[in-house]
Amino acid sequence: MVEKHAGEKQDVRQVLGAVVAELGGQERPGQIAMAEAVSEAMEEKRHLLVQAGTGTGKSLGYLVPALLHHDRVVVATATLALQHQLVERDIPALFEAAKEQLGEKGTYAVLKGRSNYACLHRVREGVPDDQGALVELPEGSVGAEVVALREWIEEEASEAGTGERDHAPRHTDRVWRQVSVSHRECLGAAKCPYGAECFAERAKERASRSQLIVTNHSLLAIDAVEGIPMIPDYDVAVIDEAHELVSRVTQAATDELSLPEIERTSRRAGRHVEGSEADDLGDAGEALRDAIADTQPGRVDHLSEQLGDALALVRDAARALVSAFPKETGDDAGSTQAKGWAQELFKTAERMAAQSDKDVLWISERDRTRGGNHLCVAPLEVAGPMREKLLTDKTAIFTSATLKLGGDFDAVAASLGLSPSGRGRDWEGLDVGSPFDYGQQAILYVARHLPQPGRDGLTQAHLDEITELVDAADGRTLGLFSSRRAAEAAAEHVREALPHLTTLAQGDAQLPELARQFVGDPHTNLFGTLSLWQGLDVPGETCQLVIIDRIPFPRPDDPLMSARQRAADKAGVNGFMTVAATHAALLLAQGSGRLIRTTTDRGVVACLDPRLVTARYGSFLRASLPPMWQTDDPAVVRKALARLAQG
User: Helix, strand or coil for residue 437?
Assistant: First the structure.
């Protein structure tokens, strides 16, 4: 066994070195340590958590051992940006640099959900409307987008292209729905006259012939946790951006039920069934609307008689409607789509009516233009299903820049379904460090003198503190706020106090445009909410100050988080620390990670919430952050920011 490992390590080192040289990079000890550990874990079928800081080069740290592995490996990412990096840059460079070592293993494929591929049947046969008639081509800019997409799709088909949405001409979500279908709406390759050319089927076929499959967290969850076969059989799952996995698995297993959805299905089905079943479903939808209107928005711990009866009506009506469709719909896309919608309604209503203690049910508020309030259901936890349906049969490698919370891997491991430390633990944790010297490059400033944040938003003292910090930094500020209202209030205050600087707020334009403006001028500030906390990469002097207005605990009225916290308390575990503090620690680590992106970056993370140093849980949160030099002295921080601005 020792000799085998030695040989494997040599192969991994050799291939990794060739790829890094091909990309013009330098040898990084953390990357080598990660690659060797991943290779061993794959061979020994042992789960592994690897924390690899920004700049480590973690994608190559798992791609090299994945391609040297004897069996198929699936790599799942949370974001399209990372998926693009893998398939457009890292994997091609790896193949180019290691042709001889990889040999026939040099194959890979990208696999996404069906709605990410254009549907030739929909493009060529047309899109039925709610009454079943084919939709005429829209006029104006939308029509032009549809025409451009259709032309591109036909080119892709003639050239054996992928038909993937990410490669398509610019378009909106609404336009893409004109040329794609969900898995429920699909006729199936055997029935579809264009099955032999189908982009989604071709993607599955390419995946079945490949050593490496690149996909996303949601598809992995549907395949492994939901049990719907989407991915060819594989040996190892490498989950990058693993800090996002619980959230993505939860999203994939969340269902919604609303009156507009029921009405649409009823109308469409009415053209394909001869009995009263479609009308019966519409009547059941009216009963559900009344029941939702009579129920307070928020978590539903116990179904009222009215709501329970309404859900049972929808469930039974949807089941009867499914049975009323002709057994064979042939290539009738309208009938297939309507039947698929009815099946989805039945499945969701049945799940909600059962009100399993493994699910959380709640009523979400929406304005009337979006169909009014609707019902949602999500799994109480995903650790159990992950453990039973993924971790038992496959080897899993989890990696991210933020997996150690409170100083160890235990919190994240437990959320993923891995056994706790000391109880027959079936996993290993490895922190390969970071190429950055956080103690020299970054300051963590906690504004201890400020009042504790309240429910009423930012106080005048907080607004003044923000303005003084931004002034000292002469712009160059990324503001991460707990709410849109707080971000807008801070932006307005800074604009008035410092008119010589440009201050942008999320919502002023699309995020890519805001990021472009932020990067283009160092005397610019960008203030926003959750989507800025993760994934925004702005190295250099663009960002020398990150302001965090408060510890990002989940809202007390968040139905899912509050239910998980309550369940943890009932199980004898500290629900606040297990759920709320862990959630906050993860976001704090991600938000703080926006500051230092290269070895030459310098700056300050300023937290305006004194609880980070005064509360008992503060040490857990601080231990989750990069090891920055810490201070609570405002004068020290302002001088440091001024020096950076002058430099």
Answer: coil
CA 538 vs. chain centroid, Å, equals 20
CB atoms within 10 A of CB 344: 19
Residues 409 and 426: their CA atoms lie apart, in Å, by: 13
Alpha carbons 49 and 432: distance in angstroms, whole number: 11
* Residues across the chain: 647
State how far the alpha carbon of 128 is from the alpha carbons of 131, 186, 282, 560, in Å: 7, 13, 20, 36
Domains and CATH numbers, the chain: 2-107+210-247+383-430 (3.40.50.300), 114-206 (no CATH), 255-379 (no CATH), 438-646 (3.40.50.300)
Q: Which of 472, 521, 456 is nearest to 464 (CA)?
A: 472
Q: Is the dihedral of CA 88, 93, 94, 98 positive or negative?
A: positive
Q: Give the residue from 41, 33, 49 showing the smallest Cα distance to 419.
A: 49
Q: Which spans in 498-581 are helix H?
A: 511-520, 530-533, 559-570, 575
- What backbone torsions phi and psi does residue 361 show, to the nearest 5 degrees? -115, 140
Name the residue among 442, 644, 402, 434 with its Cα closest to residue 535. Answer: 402
Tokens 């711990």 identify what position?
A: 301
Phi, psi (deg, nearest 5) at residue 51: -95, 120
Q: What pTM was estimated for this model as a whole? A: 0.90
Which band of pLDDT confidence, cut at 50, 70 and 90, is reported for residue 473?
very high
416-461 per-position pLDDT tens digit: 999 876 556 789 999 999 999 999 999 999 999 999 998 888 999 9
CA nearest neighbour of 289 among 269, 266, 270 = 266
Task: Give, as one character, the DSSP assignment of residue 164.
Answer: B
Q: What is the pLDDT of residues 31-41, one digit of tens each?
A: 999 999 999 99
- Bridge-based pairing of strands 374-379 and 255-257 is antiparallel
